[in-house]
Amino acid sequence: MSDDFDVNTVREALRVEREETVALIEQMASRLDAVIEATADSSSDDEHDPEGSTLAVERGHLVAQLERSRVRLDELDAALIRAESGDYGICEICGEQISAARLEALPAARLCITCATRYPTRRW
């Protein structure tokens, strides 16, 4: 890790973001449970609900959001490990320093902008 990063500040920022992500996952899981319960309690024909989206659509959105949040949690955990080992802020492909602006916007970034552009199918 370069001198541009204060490891304690990085760790704290990652921990705060991790706590927020865990809280979001818990909130969405509760909402999903409520939607599943509502589906069980209502008739199976919710497609004609004049109030808006169907329960099935809402359930699908929640499942997708939960999956993205769980991936985010995994990435934050990996970033915390990199911070502990001294590899935080180093691109996993080219070994160059990841810009401070990129890390500020995406603290769990594994790749520099150049490599992220070259390999868009890789995570961050």
UniProtKB/TrEMBL annotation:
InterPro entries: Znf_DskA_TraR (IPR000962), Znf_DskA_TraR_CS (IPR020458)
Region (Disordered): 38-57
Residue ranges covered by zinc fingers (dksA C4-type): 91-115
Sorted UniProt keywords: Metal-binding, Zinc, Zinc-finger
Domain Zinc finger DksA/TraR C4-type: 86-119
Protein name: TraR/DksA C4-type zinc finger protein
